[in-house]
Amino acid sequence: MGSNGQVLGITKIADAGDPKLRWNVVIVSEGYRSAEMAQFKTDADQFANTLLTTAPYDRLRKGINVYRVDVTSTDSGARDPTGCGGTGAKPKTFFDASFCTSGIRRLLVGNSGRVIKVVKNLLPQFHLSVLQVNSPVHGGSGGEVPTFSKAPNAVEIALHEMGHSAFGLADEYEYFAGCVADHGHDNHSGSEPSQPNVTTNKNRATVKWRSLIQAATAVPTTQNGNCAGCDPQPAPVPAGTVGLFEGADYFHCRVYRPEFNCRMRNLNQPFCGVCQQVIEKKLAPFLPPS
Fold first, then answer.
1. Tens of pLDDT, residues 180-232
2. What pLDDT does 2 receive?
3. Is the pLDDT at 245 greater than 60, yes or no?
4. Which of 90, 146, 164, 272 has its CA 20 to 30 A from that of 31?
5. How far apart are alpha carbons 25 and 140 in whole angstroms?
6. pTM value?
7. DSSP assignment, residue 160?
8. In the sheet where 64-73 sits, what is the strand order?
9. DSSP per-residue string spanning 214-283
10. Is the pLDDT confidence value at 1 over 50?
11. How many CA atoms lie within 13 A of 91 on its CB side?
12. Domain with CATH 3.40.390.10 in the chain
């Protein structure tokens, strides 16, 4: 399928048991030439190891299988259009991955339908496929197939994007284009977001993560004094404190996140308590009986 490479096959790299009973994650290669497949094996192992040692997945690993699907491409990398400040590279790759989606260079997207077709053919019981793109440029995306590059922190990008794709988590950062560059992102509309980790509700008694807020924690916990930009104040409470922190879901004000920091706000942070609870609830049915 496709003249720009070929599907070589599937390998189980983290075995928790029968795929009919477990949560099955499949990492797929894009922009790796035949001669680079050994590198993809290394990259896929790193992804699996990081995933299974990251909370809360570390507590759920008996319910998680990870597979690797080896797909070669004619050329290395991904398209990188000059219109976003890219190199202009136009490699021939199996899934046609490209930076500069929607005019944002870091938004790296491949042909998700083709990825899913390949994975479903090899493992009908899969739950999530992720696409690793062989490029050193920082980028990734959520959507049906979380996608990430080989930039430093690449696996962190994957963990963040999986939060969107597999668990319906919102971005907890409080800007769209950037804190200074934003236009029209001062105040959230006020309608309650559907995602479990952002809210416009300031009422301690009815907020969706009320069970995790300690009585001694102020609600709201932080408020942004200038809605024209991101709130510069440092955390007023210890890390891991669940409350209501203003600024989330791409808006500076009138919307709140559960903790001051979280992997859905910044890379290299733990998932907040709310996000961990969401992940655990979804994966609990895949755990073997204790």
1. 888 899 999 989 999 999 999 999 999 999 999 999 999 999 999 999 999 99
2. 52
3. yes
4. 164
5. 17
6. 0.93
7. H
8. 5-14, 64-73, 23-30, 128-133, 147-148, 140-141
9. -TTS-SSSB--S-TTS---PPPSS-TT--S-EEEETTEEEEEEESSS--TTTSTTSPPPHHHHHHHHHHH
10. no
11. 25
12. 5-167
| CATH superfamily assigned to domain 5-167 | Collagenase (Catalytic Domain) (3.40.390.10)
Strand, helix or coil at 23? Answer: strand
Compute the distance between CA of residue 287 and CA of residue 290 in angstroms, rounded to an integer: 8
* Mode of pairing for the β-strands spanning 64-73 and 23-30: parallel
Mean pLDDT, rounded, for 10-18: 98
Six token digits for residue 127: 């739950």
Structural tokens at position 194? 């559907």
Closest C-alpha among 148, 114, 143, 116 to residue 26: 116
**Proportion of the chain above pLDDT 70, given as a percent:** 99
Joined tokens for residue 81: 């259009």
